[in-house]
Amino acid sequence: MADNREITIKVNGKDMTTYVETRLSLGDVLREHFHLTGTHLGCEHGVCGACTVVVDGEPIRSCLMLGVQAHGKEVTTVEGLSKGEDLHPIQEAFWKNHGLQCGYCTPGFLTTLFSFLENNSDPTEREIREAISGNICRCTGYQNIVNAALDAAKVMKGS
Amino acid sequence: MKPAPFKYHDPKTLSELVELMSNLEDAKILAGGQSLMPMMNMRYVTPEDVIDINGVNELDFIKLENDHLTIGSMTRQKDILSNQKIFDKAPIFREALNHVGHIQTRSRGTIGGSLCHLDPSAEIPALASLYDASLTVVNREGSREIHIDEWVLAYMMPSISDEEVLTSISIPVWKNPHGYAFIEFARRHGDFAVCGAGTLVEIDANDIISKVAIVVAGVDVKPLRLSTLETDLIGKKATKDTLEYACSSAKKIEAISDVYFSTQYRQRLAGTLIKRSLEVAIERARIINNDG
Amino acid sequence: MGARFFGADVLRAEDRTLLKGSGQYVDDIRLEGTLHGAFLRSPHAHAIIKSIDTTKAKELDGVHAVYTYDEIEEPLNQPIKQPYPHPLIRKDILGYPLAKEEVCHVGEAIAFIVADTRHIAEDAIPLIEIEFETLEAAVRVREAALPNAPTAHKDSKDNIAAELNIKFGDIEDTFSSADHVLETSFLQHRGGCHAMEGRAILASYNSSLDELTSWSATQCPYLIRRSLAGHFQMPESRIRIISPDVGGGFGPKAGFYAEEIITAFASKKLGKPVKWIEDRQEHFVTTNTQRDSWWDLKIACDNKGRISGVRGKIITDQGAYIPWGLLLAFTSMTPLPGPYKILSMDIDQQVVFTNTVPNTPVRGAGRPNAAYAMERVIETVSRHLKIGSAEIRRRNFVEKKDFPYKTGLIHFNGTPMSYDSGDYHQLLEKALDLADFDNFFERQKQARENGQFLGIGISSCIEDTGNGPYEGVTVRVDTMGKVYVSSGAASQGQGHKTVLTQIVADQLSVNIEDIHVEIGDTSKFPQGVGTVASRVGVNIGTAAFSAANEVREKALNLAADILETDLEDLEIEDGIIRDKSRKNLTISLGEIALKLAPMSGGAVPAGHSASLESTSYQASNGMPHASGSNVCEVEVDIGTGEVKVLNYCVAHDCGKKINPMIVEGQIVGGVVHGIGNALFEEMIYDDGGQPQNTNYGEYLLPLATEMPPIKVIHQETPSPLNPLGLKGAGEGGTIPAAAAIVSAIENALTEFNVVIDRYPVTPEYLCNLIDKENQIEV
Ligand code: FES
Ligand code: FES
Known about the structure:
heterotrimer; A: 159 residues; alpha+beta; Ubiquitin-like (UB roll); DNA polymerase, domain 1; 5-stranded mixed sheet; 5 strands; B: 292 residues; Uridine Diphospho-n-acetylenolpyruvylglucosamine Reductase, domain 2; Uridine Diphospho-n-acetylenolpyruvylglucosamine Reductase, domain 3; 3 domains; 4-stranded antiparallel sheet; 12 helices
C-alpha cells in the first residue's frame, strides 16, 4: 500500500504543498510535483551533483533526501537564483565565461557555488575546485566553471 | 533507480525511536542518507519500514568535558569539521574530515551513519579507533557501551542488533597539545580512500617519542590500530630510521584485496602512508615543543 | 564590410534558458497522460531464456502493460537493422528489440513494463518470473578471438565479427632495408559515454493521424527517423523526431537503440505517450561503450629515427553486437600515420565479439586509438635511439610544402586520406614554447633533488574532420525582416545555434537578435546526418555560408531592380539595403521578402525566384584536417603510484575559428575527457562477464580537483577545402591526450625504465612497473 503524506516546502520563497508518496526523493518531488525541472537527476546515487539544491542554507543532493524530509524546510533550486530576467551573478559569470555546454550539469554547479560563495567571499582557485569536486561535468573540463566562479566571487563581494 | 515502497516513520524522540525499533520487523534507520539512499535507489536494500531519525534532535550534539569528547550520532560531518572546540583539542578531526566526500554529502552525512556503515577505509571509524573511542547503543531495555574494537564484527558489519540504535560516540582526547596527521590516498578528491593513515604523537625535548597512536584504514576490513608498532616506537628517537622501521613493519600487515587493489599494493600503500603521517605528526609535535 | 561576428567570442544564444533551469531536456517535457517505462534486463552475460511469466507483474496496480518478445508484433519482431552495412562484416549480429531467446550481455533488454509512474514500473520488474539457462560467456577479447573459445552467440562457430586490413607501400622491402626494427604492444581502453543526461525517449503515437512523434536525447534524429521508418514500415513523413535540449552526446548517443522501437511500440499499443528515461545503472550496461583494443606493432626506422614502416595487428573487443558496423574499426586505422610521413604500412584488425556491452565510438571514435598508437611508435623510436621526443617528431613530420599530402590510405568513405593544409613543425614549436619545454629539464632536475618525479610528454596528432556527405541549412527572411535558420544538425552542447547565427548575421548583415534558429527537429528541416566526428561546424558552417550568401544575392538583385541602381553600389547594413553613395535610397530585407512572398494573386517579379530564402547542402570539398601538438607535465608519487597532471598545453590548428570561445571550450573539455581515458576511466568486467563498477563512486570520471590548468594556443592554417577555411574542433582535445600523459609518466620514471603498455594507468599498475626491476624506498 502506498505510503503518502502531505508536505509543505518553501521553494524559492514560496510555500508549496503537495501530497506525495513518501518514497519520492526531493528531486522527484521538485520535478514531478512542482514541475521545477531545472533540478536534474544525473545518477540518482549521490555522486554527480546535478541534483544539488540548497536546503536551509546547505547544499545537498536531492536524490539522497526524501521529499518528506524537506517538509517545513526552505529549498532553493536553480529556478530561484535569477530574479525575473536578471541572472544571478553566478549565472551571469557562467554565461560570460562559457561555463556550460550542454547545460545538464549546470543547475547543480550553480546551486553548489551559490551556497559556497555566500559563505566564502574570497575563495582561491583550489578552494573552488574542492567546492565543486562533488559535481561532475562531462563537457567543459571544469576550467571555465572555475573561472566563472572566481569572477562571480568578485562581483558578489563587490555588491 | 527508484526505491521500492516502504512505510516512512519520523520519530521525534529517542524513546519513540526505540519503541518503533522494537516493534518493526524489517526497518532501516535513515540518518544522513548518504549510504542508505543510494542503496535503496538501486534497490539493493528494500526495507519495509524506514525510520528517519533526522528529527530526533537529542542525538545531535557535541560536548567536550574533561578531555572527553562526546558526539551525538546525528551530528553532521560538516558540524564536526567546523567545530572550533574539537579542532583545538583534536585537530586531526578536521584534517581527516576534509577527506570525507564533498560539501553536499558532508552537509547531510552524520558521524553515526559512518560508524554504522563501516566502510573499511572510512575516516570516522579510523579516528574512533585511533582514540580508543567507545560507542553508546540504546534499545528499549537500556543502553550499553562498546569499545570500537568490538564494534566492528566483520566487513561492514557493526555489532548492533535490529532493535538497537547508536546514540553517541565518546572520545577520550589527548590532554596535551600533540603532533597529528591524517594522510590518505584516494583516486580522486573526496572518493573513498584506498588507504588512510592517522597518527597522534608526543615527543619530548630530546626528540624521543613518548606517546603515539597509529591507525590505518582500508587495509583490513576494519580500521587497524598498530599497537605493536606503537609500543616499539615509544622511547625511540624520531629519526629517519625510525620512520623506515614504521614503514617496513606496516608493509607486513595482512591486507585485503578486491577487484581494484591487490593485497600487495595495499601493503605498499600502508607503508608509504604510515611513514608519511608519522613524519608529519612528528614535525608538528616538534613545532609545538618549540613554541611551548 | 568585413565579418562582424565570424571569429568573435560571441556569447552563446543557448545559455540564458539553460542557466535559469528552464531548458527542456526529454525528461522535462510533459505530455498529458504520459506513462512511464522500465526494463527488465538480463542479469547474465550469456544465457537462454527458458521461460518467462509476466502475469504477476501485469496484475500490479498501476501497471498498464508488460511486453516481452512474444508480444511484439510484426514487423517489429526482427533484429535491429544494421545502419552501417559493410561487405567486410562477417557476422552482422544485432539484438532484437526485446531479447528473443538468447541474451548476450548483462543489461540486454528482456521485458518492458509500462506503468503510471517510473516507481511502479520498477516495482513490477521483480514480479516477472523468469528462468534462465546460463551459457559460457566470452569475456576477455584475446581469448575470445581464439578458435575454440566459448562463443558470444550460441549459433556462432567463432567470435570473429570482421577482419580488416589496411596497407600501402612496400612493407617487406621497408622492413628488410631498415636500420632498426622495433616493437611496441599495448592495450587501449576508452571507456563509456557518461553524458550527464543519459539516453531518454518520450514517444507519442497519434492513431487518428497515424503519426509518431518522439523526443529523443540523441545526436542523430534523422538516423532514428530512418531506422524507425524501416522497422515500423512507415513512411518517414509520418515520423517526427525531435532532439530537444540534450545533455551531452560523446558518440554513444548517436546510435539507434532498441528502446527507440519499444517506447514507440508501447505508445502505439496503449494510445498514450510513453516515456523511458535511462537511469545511470542502465547507462552502464546498455549504452554502448568503447572497449578494449590490443595492439602489437613493429616499426622500421633508420639510424636518424626516420620511421619508414609500421606493421602489426589489432584485436578489438566488439562487445555483444555490432550496431555501428565497422566505423570504429576503420577510424582506428585510416588516420594511423598521423602527422608523420610514413612510407609503408600493413595493419590487420580482428573485430571480435564478447558478451559485454556493444562497442561503438566515444568522442573521437578510433582516432584517439590511432593517435595513441602512432605516438607510442614515435616514443619507442625516441627511447631506443635516444633522440629527444621533440626532435624525433620534427624528423618525421609531414612538411608544410607537402600539402595536400596523401598518406596512401583510403578513408572509409572511399576517398584517399589527404591532408589539406597545416604546419606541424610550427605547431609543435608553439606547444613547446607554451609549455616552457626548454627549461623543463632544469625544473625536473631540481625537483628530483627534492625527491619529486616530474615528467614531460608530447603528443602530436591530426584529425580528419568535417566528414560528409553534407548537412543542410535553410535561411529564410520574413516580411518583418526576421531571419529564420533551420538545419538538420542537432546540438548536445556545442552551440550550433550560436555559430549558425554568427555566420548568417555576417552574410546578411543583420543583427544577431533578428535571427531565429531551429535545429534538431526532423519536421523543421528535411534531412540531416548528425553531430558526430567533429563534422558539424564545417558542414553547417559551409552550408549556412552558402545559403545566406544566396539569400543576400537574391535580395540585392531585386533591390537593384527596385531602386534602379547598380548591384555593385548596394550594401546591407542592419537589415537595410542601401545605395552606398545615395544613402537615403534604401529598402529593407523585409520589404524585399514581401515582394517575393506567397501573396495570393501576386506575382514574383520577373527575373527573380520565389521566397527570400535558400537551402544549401554545400559541404566541404573533402575532409579538412585539423592538427594539434600537446605538451603536458606530470608528477608521479612513487610511494602511491599517483599521477598528478601539473599542467597541460595545447597548440591546435582548426583553421578559421567561427567562435574561438566555443572552440576553446571544446578543446578543454576534450582534453579532460582524454585525461579521464589516460588515468581514470575503466569499465571492468569479471571473468564471467559481470560488470563490476556500475556507479560513479567506482567508475571514475575526471573531477575538477584532479584537472590541471589547460592552456590553449592556436595556429590558423585555413582549410582550402571550404569557403570559410574551417576545420573541425570537437575531438581535437581528446585525440592526443592519453599519449601525452603516458609519455610524461614514462619520462618522470626514466630512472626506473618504466614502459607503459596500457591505459588507463592506475596507481597499482604503475607501482608494479616501478617495483619490477627496482628495489625502491618509498
Ligand atoms: S543525481 Fe543526485 S548526485 Fe547525481
Ligand atoms: S555542460 Fe554538459 S555536463 Fe556540464
